[in-house]
Amino acid sequence: MKTLLLSLALFTSLFLESQNIGDFTSITPATQTEAFVISSSHTFQKIIEVGDALDIGGSLPINPDFTGYVPITGSSTNGYLSINSEAGPGGNTILDINFDSSSNLWEITASEAVDFTDPNIVGTFANCSGTVTSWGTVITSEEFSIPNDTNSDGYYDVGWNIEIDPVTKTVVNNQKLWALGNFKHENVVVHSNDRTVYQGADDTSGFGFLYKFVATTAQDLSKGDLYVYTGPKSGSGSWVMINDSSIPAHETPSHRNNTMALANGVGATNFVGIEDVEIGPDGWIYFAVKSAPDKRVYRFQDSDPITGTTVTNMETFVGNTDTNPNIEYNIFDGNNTTAVAWGSGNDNLAFDNDGNLWVLQDGSTDYIWVVKSGHTQAIPDVEIFGVVPLGAEPTGITFSPDNKFLFMSVQHPDSGNVANQIDAAGNTVNFDKGTVLVIARNENLGTSLFVKEPFTTNYKLFPNPLESNKILNIKGIQIDNVQLFSILGEKLLDVDYNNANEVNLKLKNRIPGLYLIKINNKQSIKLIIN
Predict the structure, then answer these.
(1) pLDDT recorded at residue 10
(2) Distance (Å, rounded) from C-alpha 114 to C-alpha 98?
(3) From CA 458, how far away is CA 37, in angstroms rounded?
(4) Is residue 510 over pLDDT 90?
(5) By mean pLDDT, which of 77-81, 290-294, 486-490 is the weakest?
(6) Which letter does DSSP use for residue 466 in this model?
């Protein structure tokens, strides 16, 4: 028996080393519950919740949104976590975080809110998404454009991108990024040339335009040329310049304040709510549009990111099409295949290192979709990784450089949620408030010797691993029967209950190793006894 268990452990270890964060089996498609449901191959750890105290005064504000991991010198285990607050007033919180290899868990070593009260900045509002730059800063985006000028500097107070240094927790150059234009910013992405920025407007009133900004100097976004896309949503179009940095009149506050009007004046194409723009490993630019008639992720090619004025191959990559406005994808959960409507609310996007596109949806099913590398509309390859709790939308999303860890937030869940989930650190998480998470495959997060059964199923075991001669606690809904099996399939225990929500099992004198707990003759969960 010991030899078998050692062989199993070695096989499991070698197999899991080859697994990446995008390797999983889809969840069974379902509506939201109080729990955070993710694929059984993965687990999560709560990093911080709304209301948790920060080291230097205050607490984490409501509505955590973009959750940007900024590696320190390329590290996947030591960095900063930038958390936007999509509220009024808005905010941004920087956590110093590191991964403790002894506990296999993440920890916060410092936490501080960015100060936006300087008279040159006059606060910030509805900090939605953003990006992490290659030079180690964070860009946070204001989702609303408000034509106030509190400090009389000529610039509107709200409707800009803002660059933050996570090391000092301060705004770069002590001013907003006026040159990138004023509109309802949702997200930006910076090209690897460190000059070109693609961005979209989360506007459903007719100004949902797609922009390109080319900085005059690499890694300096304070000056450059601003273009807007004009053309069809399928085929080829053009970038039309609306801010020429060589013309002094274009560098004035009044010109930059009127970005939307200038774009509209040159016939910019309206996409109904651009939520995110990302650059794929294939060099294509992808952007998510949330509302009808679009409700999809588009992609296109730029003839030249710096000098090009031609957009080619604009097309629908995933989601609804003009000919099929309610497209469905077949989702296989390991047992059954279900046709699932793509829906609307396409929000945050991120590519993992394998080229899979993660799509977080807001206001439709609130699924976390993963569009696998190689997907086409003709030969689709789409999976559902998870669904957030009642009332919530998934926000974020960034990865550690080695792609072992995914950082995201659960925004505005119902305050009455009592998920009672146990995370990888053993903490109880109810998802009754905004929560910032890190997600990883089971073997990369937490302390289990083998693959941990995640705490995203209908039933939860605690503790797991279990010390010999200790009591195992099982929680769930309508527990009628619990069985214990050895790894060889031998039934060791069979106990009936009557619609219980919590039971305790005394598992005395069991040989250390891997076992299976089967509940109601349906759900099997791995149990480790030390």
Answers:
(1) 43
(2) 20
(3) 9
(4) no
(5) 486-490
(6) B
